[in-house]
Amino acid sequence: MFDGLDALVLARIQFAFTVSFHFIFPAFSIGLASFLAVLEGLWLKTGKQLYLDLFKYWLKIFAIAFAMGVVSGIVMSYQFGTNWSVFSDVAGPVIGPLMAYEVLTAFFLEAGFLGVMLFGMERVGKKLHFAATLMVAVGTFISAFWILSVNSWMQTPTGYEIGANGQFLPGDSWWTIVFNPSFPYRLVHTVLAAYLTTAFVVGGVGAWHLLKDSANAHARKMFSMAMWMAALVVPVQIFAGDMHGLNTLEHQPQKVMAMEGHFESHPNGAPLILFGIPDSAEKRVKYAIEIPKASSLILKHDLNAPLAGLDTIPDDEEPPVGIVFWSFRIMVGLGFLMLGVGVWSLLARWRGKLYQWPWLHRAALVMGPSGFVAVIAGWITTEVGRQPYVVYNLLRTADAASPLDAPAVATSLLAFVLVYFTVFGAGVWYILHLMRKSPHTGEYGVKRGDKGPIRTAGITPGPTQDPSDQSRRDLSGSKHEPEDRP
């Protein structure tokens, strides 16, 4: 039944599907780990129970999101070996060590301290537990560092040599590979996006509970902290995105051409196309709504600066313009909506109505999942805009795929779709179930099992005894009779 399908297209769909599912969990856990560290730090500094309650409330959600992120990431290595074996072979000498560094420096750090963070509140000192929380937060950032370095090298490859067998080999310095030209911009832009994703989730949950009870102290604190993040960080993110775009124009001009919808070159200033329908067959944007020369102003800071179009690029080098054009606008549009909510919250705070404006709370609730949509749209812009290459200008996507038949790829794709929607759908439902409940004083946090670990070396725990009985046991384990017994 799958013989008429293209194996390459199916492999790309499968990778896009699994990576999109995976991406939303780290995008949430990176920001949430730092938020937890801030909450615990404020609790230690002020001693206020409210911060500890919020810490335990969000710790349960973090544990689930972190687990789903780890599980969904395992599939990536599977696909590299099955669907993209040529890419693994050719780029492995460069990509492999960077991925190994991610495991050694980040994943082990997170895994080592995660247990203390989840279950150690009553077993270690406050300062040591806070240190464990900080290490988990730092570990999530280090993980993003290495993963984004790998992705950025595929976008702007530097520091490599071509071996006799056609493999990409590291050159004289690994620093040139790690800190490739697009990496600093992509790192800042993506990490800020993760923080904003978490901020709007927290703000949405706080808004939900404020709509039900505007006097809820826990909801007030959540909403206030999230709105400060939105008001202060969104402008920084917009600036970082602009810098990232200028870097992309320098190193990947056809990606920017697709983002802007510039099928033709503009020697005397290019318009900013706000909306329209790109038509790659006719090489134009139909029904375009545009601002004259505004694109040159944004990209070159000069109204009359010339901008090259896709007419300077061979047809087989062009990325899919329609997808890149609209994914970019979704990302940017959501960014400005986030800015609007942040400015609105500042006005409400200034008027002393931050907790009494229900329309602001409704807007924050609607914008709760906006960060996830924005990061997926940004990822699509980045990855589809790089096409037709998997390693930019060096290795085409069509040449990187494994020699598989369409039925084999389609079968695994269907399996992934079924399993992902079942497993991760249940996980997301449970997270939403936890969010629906309001934080309360004495929040219990992550529960441990009552029976403790399973012993497998022939030693089994005895029955629980009353402490008062223990003093009555002799060395043989039998009880003494009470002293006043005749």
UniProtKB/TrEMBL annotation:
It is a multi-pass membrane protein. This is Cytochrome ubiquinol oxidase subunit I. The chain crosses the membrane at residues 20-45, 57-78, 98-121, 128-148, 192-211, 223-240, 323-347, 359-380, 413-432. It is found in: Cell inner membrane; Cell membrane. Keywords: Cell membrane, Electron transport, Heme, Iron, Membrane, Metal-binding, Transmembrane, Transmembrane helix, Transport. The keyword Heme applies. Residues 469-486 have a biased composition (Basic and acidic residues). InterPro entries: Cyt-d_ubiquinol_oxidase_su_1 (IPR002585). The keyword Nucleus does not apply. One of its GO terms (molecular function) is oxidoreductase activity, acting on diphenols and related substances as donors, oxygen as acceptor. GO terms for cellular component: cytochrome complex; plasma membrane. GO terms for biological process: aerobic electron transport chain. Belongs to the cytochrome ubiquinol oxidase subunit 1 family. Residues 445-486 are annotated as: Disordered.
